[in-house]
Amino acid sequence: MQRCKVSSVIQQTQGRRARLRAQTTAEIKATALRLMSEGGTDAISLRAIAREMDMSASAVYSYFATRDELITTLINDVYSELVDRVEAARDACPADDPAARLQAWWRALRDWALAEPDGFRLVYGDPVAGYVTPVGGPAPRPSKRACLGLVELVAAAWPQAAPRQPPVEFSWSDFTPELADEIRRHLPDVSPGAVALAFRVWGRMYGLIGLEIYGHLRPSLPDPGALYEAELRDLVVSLGLVPPGQADGAAGH
Amino acid sequence: MQRCKVSSVIQQTQGRRARLRAQTTAEIKATALRLMSEGGTDAISLRAIAREMDMSASAVYSYFATRDELITTLINDVYSELVDRVEAARDACPADDPAARLQAWWRALRDWALAEPDGFRLVYGDPVAGYVTPVGGPAPRPSKRACLGLVELVAAAWPQAAPRQPPVEFSWSDFTPELADEIRRHLPDVSPGAVALAFRVWGRMYGLIGLEIYGHLRPSLPDPGALYEAELRDLVVSLGLVPPGQADGAAGH
DNA sequence: AACGTTTTCCGAACGGCGTTCAGTTTTCAC
DNA sequence: GTGAAAACTGAACGCCGTTCGGAAAACGTT
User: What is the three-class DSSP state of B232?
Assistant: First the structure.
């Protein structure tokens, strides 16, 4: 009885301590993101965070061993939220309309990038001065999720897309064993060519967004949205999901 | 006579002073680029440059009003050299082979990006911590050169490419007046649709390079070169410069 | 050849940064 | 209640960009 009570108290107090710790950790991350939204990624500094939270700078080291560890955590959080969002946009489209699902995915990505350009920098660019990315990448889990999601989308188009692809052959040995295993486990019916195509699609759409975010489009093109839509349109046509020259049912944007 | 001599002496000494100044300026820039190649863009600091040159940090301010001004100059230099390079690669191909010229341009860009990833970050990404880009962009001249060169390349393919484009109409009013005037002055025969297509092509190829440079490809794809070649191949096919499914004469890479 | 001005350069300083460390306070388990 | 572990503080170190007063050199003019 006593033992039980004690143990429950222990659990309770441990729970309390852990809860406080989790709470402070969350506050640190939230403060960091707020500072970023107010002053860009460079505004994320341990000292500024500590100042905002009325604590000393060195106290933050009880929660993150180093600034880069905090940045890595932020990248993971932001990236995960991004993947949640594009997946939600994709799943809002009917499962039997692969063109709509693909376009929704990429529209959601651009919308997010425009809404939170600093988040985009954090995830896809050079995050912050002097940050060195850990081995295996800063955010392996969300990036794997994004990769699988995109491969799945492209794979759905593969039957129509395959004959339209350039005669460049790909095999599983072109990819790292980790990726090949991952894909074959989750998406056993996908071919290496579809994976390669997914990466090419990724580059295509990421490129326009990156140019826009990094300011290479605006000086010439006041509204890159139309350009993005054209590329999106060309994309689904090139994948054979939509006949050329016709409006596709997934417009409505 | 005497007047003439005096004036010549003046010119000489003025020339000497200016020469010394230009020399020191060049040394500062060279040192900055060396530091960047050794330690990344974050290694570019006025203090480090001064240290390397055996002078005080404040002395650098006689040559650049601020660190950002130095960065801006570096961006211009690096960008200009990049444009020189891609233009040279393009011009090494016969004028009557637009597919080869286009592919040479983009191959040269990727080769340069891989050889000098920090230069790529400087020109196309977030250059350096806390750097605020001046109004009108950090490097309007080289970026205008790159834009015109690319538009010219795409315009050469426009007759074949136009019917293959998605039915998204563009007009000169979609672009800033500066760009529209610039293009109509230098390339009077180019249509707005061709310009839009040029930007889309830019995004396409920039995207793959950016993903590779920022480390989003390597963890999954040991050799993104094949992917890039496939995209390049698909590009010239989609522009109607090469019939699909056949090897094009511009391979040899 | 000498004078006054402009340019160049130095050294110290300010506030910011990440990080470390010795020491203190608080919290927790027993 | 006591000892250990965790959280926290304040000072310090070396880095950064930038400013400022003053010294040194180079320069144009007389």
Answer: helix
Residues of A in contact with B167 (CB under 8 A): 245, 247
Residue nearest to nucleotide D8 (CA to C1'): A59
pLDDT band at A14 (very low <50, low <70, confident <90, very high): low
CB A144, CB A180: distance < 8 Å: no
For the stretch B77-118, pLDDT in tens is 999 999 999 999 999 999 999 999 999 999 999 999 999 999
What's the angle, vertex CA A146, arms to CA A142 and CA A148, rounded to 5?
115
Three-state DSSP class for B166? coil
Chain B from 192 to 251: CB within 8 A of any A CB: 196, 199-200, 202-208, 210-211, 214-217, 219-224, 226-227, 229-231, 233-234, 237-238, 244-245, 247
B132 part of contact set with chain A, CB < 8 Å: no
Quick one: how many helices (H) and strands (E) in chain B?
9, 0
Distance B56 CA to C6 C1' (A): 20
Question: Is B56's CB less than 7 Å from nucleic acid strand C?
Answer: yes
Q: Distance (Å, rounded) from C-alpha A58 to C-alpha A243?
A: 61
- Residues on chain A touching B174 (C-beta within 8 angstroms): 221-223, 226
Q: How far, in Å, CA of A186 to CA of A184, rounded? A: 6
DSSP A69-131: HHHHHHHHHHHHHHHHHHHHHHHTS-TT-HHHHHHHHHHHHHHHHHH-HHHHHHHHS--STT-
CA pair distance B47, A71, nearest whole angstrom? 26
- Backbone angles phi and psi of B250, in degrees to 5: -95, 10
Higher pLDDT, A234 or A10: A234
Instruction: Kindly determine whether residue A214 and residue B124, on different chains, have CB atoms separated by under 8 Å.
Output: yes
pLDDT < 50 stretches in chain B: 1-12, 249-253
> Residue A245 pLDDT more than 80?
no
The reported pLDDT for the residue numbered A3 is 33
Identify the structural domains of chain A with CATH numbers, from first to last. 1-64 (1.10.10), 67-253 (1.10.357.10)
Residues near B155 by beta carbon (within 8 Å), at least 6 away in sequence = B187, B189, B190, B191, B194, B198
pLDDT at B248: 52
